[in-house]
Amino acid sequence: MAYNDQQLRTMMTSFYMMQDMRIRTNNRIAGMMFTERAIERGDLDAYGNVVMHKEERDDEAHAKMILNMIEYQEKLKNEWEEAGKHPTRNSIIKILQTRKGPISNIAVWSLVEDLIHYMDREKWYMGLVQAEVKQHPVFQQFLSKVPYCGTMMSAVILSSFDIRKARHMSGFWKYAGLDAVIDPTTGKGVGRSRTKVLMEETTYIDANGNEATRKSIGFNPRLQTKLLGVLAPLFIKYNTVYRKFYDDAKHRYTERAKVMGEDVTPMQISRRAIRFMMKVFVQDLWVKWREIEGYPVEPSYYEVYLAGRPHGRGYMPGVTDEDGNYLGKKYDPNSNENETKNITARHLLQMRIMTDEEAELFTGVSADELLRDNYQDIDDIYNRAGEHKKRPKI
After folding, report:
1. What are the angstrom distances between the C-alpha of 78 and each of 71, 73, 84, 86?
2. Domain positions in the chain
3. 267 with 176: CB under 8 angstroms?
4. How far apart are CA 40 and CA 62, in angstroms?
5. Which one-letter DSSP state was computed for residue 150?
6. Which three-class secondary structure state does DSSP give residue 137?
7. Rounded Cα–Cα distance for residues 153 and 141 (Å)
């Protein structure tokens, strides 16, 4: 029986709702208190707007102020409970007016109560999500084996993707915002983002039941942020099994920029490499998830054209063994594409993109034999790339 993802999605939706309300209430409390203090100081501009001090914009000072309010409220409630008192709204107002403390009025008092409630509910739903995601077969067989991909990150991933709708791994890439799109203003490929020019036409059913079109960003921004902004830095910082893909891709993009004379910054190259690394991770997820659900798994680009092994492919949690043995397409001596494969492998070897082992796995011929008949120096390859770039477009 297949696992029902709907329960996990419902829990994650509730968790995000409580988290959003907690953040909104937190910010509302801070805004009220900073405004009150600014008015007392007389820090108003010519239009009557509040002028905040620099230290009041500091996140640490903000958190400390909220914490003091929570502790103060809990202290008063404990005192009333020990004295057997049950103060009403009017009595609380009088106490706040006569007793000096971090909470000065009933409005802030009520917001602090709401904040405590939302914090408790957020923790409650977090516990439910963590318990539920551990029952998911994809977490048990794959995500739990991925370093630094914890239960909450796994819950975000599993509740966002729908394996039943993604027949191809590229569907996962696009939904997570990891694919590249053509910028109509420059004609160049760029990473998917919320930029207005990159929005695409999508169809939907309106309130009247009619099919309509609208502009859409075409991906899940929350999922993209979690993958590229949270999980990817952990993969790189702690040298996980996916770090090698980042290093190799970064080296390739750097060398290609030099050869083709591209005007790119180190940050742009790093972001491209991060996207490549996370595409490999999402590909592994898609493959394992399809296998668990019993759906057919179509071969990837690497399986079809690179003998089943992308550059530097090693251990994939839940997909290969510890030695990196990967079941992909191997050399077929009866194939008519052998010569094309040899030429491709020779060029990749000369560009230092493919290793000797990968070339032999790809073609069935050793790297020495590939380079013996028609060897060209790396500098010659660079010159050819430069000449090709200068050719006029036809």
Report:
1. 10, 9, 10, 11
2. 6-133, 142-162+220-329
3. no
4. 18
5. -
6. helix
7. 15
pTM recorded for the entire structure: 0.72
Is residue 199 within 8 Å of 181, Cβ to Cβ? no
The token duo for 227 is: 């993958």
Q: Hey, is 185 helix, strand or coil?
A: coil
338-350 and 378-390 helices, crossing angle to 10°: 100
Residue of 238, 44, 231 whose CA lies nearest to 156: 231
Q: Which residue has tokens 């991909």?
A: 149
In the chain, the amino acid numbered 291 is: E
Asked if 360 and 367 count as a contact pair (C-beta separation under 8 A), the reply is yes
Alpha carbon separation from 192 to 152, 165, 172, 239, 242 (Å, rounded): 25, 20, 13, 26, 21
* Nearest CA among 78, 110, 118 for reference residue 92: 110
- Residue 80 CA to residue 393 CA, distance in Å, equals 82
Q: What is the distance between the alpha carbons of residues 359 and 370, in angstroms, rounded to a whole number?
A: 9
DSSP structural state of residue 68: H
Q: How far apart are CA 33 and CA 102, in angstroms?
A: 9
Cα distance between residue 212 and residue 73, in whole Å: 52
One digit per residue, the tens of pLDDT, for the chain of length 394 reads 456 788 999 999 999 999 999 999 998 998 888 777 777 777 777 666 767 666 666 777 788 888 999 999 999 999 888 988 888 888 889 888 888 888 888 999 999 999 999 999 999 999 999 999 999 999 999 999 999 999 999 999 999 999 988 888 889 999 999 988 888 888 777 888 888 878 888 888 888 888 888 888 889 999 999 999 999 999 999 988 899 899 989 998 898 888 888 888 999 999 999 999 999 999 999 989 998 998 888 766 655 555 444 444 444 444 444 454 443 333 344 444 555 566 666 656 655 556 677 777 767 777 777 766 444 444 443 344 444 333 333 2
